[in-house]
């Protein structure tokens, strides 16, 4: 996928960004984190969230970064799209990430966070009735994802498992 | 409570000193393995946010070789030892003589991977034993896990515990110098990420807790 650098909106860790056609949204190095794209198929506007953790109730401090948690980031993602004029029935989602980078045989819940992130994200999208039209989740590989608001394709790149458009 | 965002220069110095001692132990072990003179330096101890941490190793998409250990015991936390692909390949060559090992193109060499795991193990173990001597308590490293993948994907894993209270981590840089004329010394990044609750305990034991 060839794109001009100035067409790319970078989404950091625990971050949330929006873009309109023909811009691309991109986030790099997803491991157990999950990248969530919600977009309006007609208006061609999209938002991408890079969530680290499933649930903000586990936070041990008050002023949290709401973009870090699936349960606080995704509502903002959805609401902002609606505020921008997106129609609920035109919304679709694509998700990637939630890998388990290290195969510990530990009971530590933290090490299964990829799986928990995937579950939390899917739960939110199901509750809001936003269909997940493509996904590349779990596994053991880090992923870099780039979403084109023009083609509505999600490009997923890995180090050893190649590249695919979803 | 001592928090990583408000560490004093003295507290950072103490962590650096522990790094120096740990590196000394590690250099001895490493020079026995390689059968040559090895110097190790600890150039800096820093507190960085997540993005900076990624940038230290070339950005979240950069392919890195990482040895990851979980620390259990008195001051739980995690530890990463990180080498760039070139450094990892150079190290494998020096240790095992394997010269066609490539982190990206030809990574399926059990001997090479095992060598990399071992360097991480030795360095982390040396650091931990220095640290546990200092605090007079015990720290046990888990079995080291080697992963080669994107930096962001690997490092985020170590940030999970911390990220519940803070957006910062402590980084201890090390330099491994084998005194050979060709090329630069192998630069290894050592990331020590004490669990949030561990700082207080550590600094209490070290006698540098401010409160």
Descriptive report:
The complex is a heterodimer of chains A (166) and B (211). By secondary structure, chain A is of the alpha+beta class. Chain A has a single domain (11-165), classed as 60s Ribosomal Protein L30, Chain: A (2-Layer Sandwich), CATH 3.30.1330.200. Helices cover 17% and strands 34% of the residues of chain A. Chain A has two helices and ten strands, in the order βββββαβαββββ. Chain A has helices at residues 70-83, 113-127; strands at residues 8-10, 15-20, 24-30, 34-40, 45-51, 91-97, 132-137, 143-148, 154-157, 163-165. In chain A, the strands form two sheets. A five-stranded mixed sheet of chain A has the order 1-3-8-9-10, with no helix packed on it. In chain A, strand 8 (143-148) and strand 9 (154-157) form a beta hairpin. In chain A, helix 1 runs parallel beside helix 2 (113-127). Chain A is globular, with a radius of gyration of 15 Å. Chain A starts with 7 loop residues before the first strand and ends with a strand. Chain B has 211 residues and is of the alpha+beta class. Chain B has one domain (4-206): Chemotaxis protein chec. Chain B contains six helices and seven strands; from the N terminus they run H-E-H-E-E-H-H-E-E-H-E-E-H. Chain B has helices at 9-34, 50-56, 85-96, 110-135, 151-163, 198-206; strands at 39-49, 63-73, 77-83, 139-141, 145-150, 168-177, 186-194. In chain B, strands 1, 2, 3, 4, 5, 6 and 7 form a seven-stranded antiparallel sheet that branches. In chain B, helix 1 crosses helix 4 and helix 3 (85-96) crosses helix 4. The radius of gyration of chain B is 17 Å and the shape is globular. The N and C termini of chain B lie close together (8 Å). The mean pLDDT of chain B is 80. Classes of the chains: A alpha+beta (166), B alpha+beta (211). At the A-B interface, strand 3 of A face helix 2, strand 2, strand 5 and helix 5 of B.
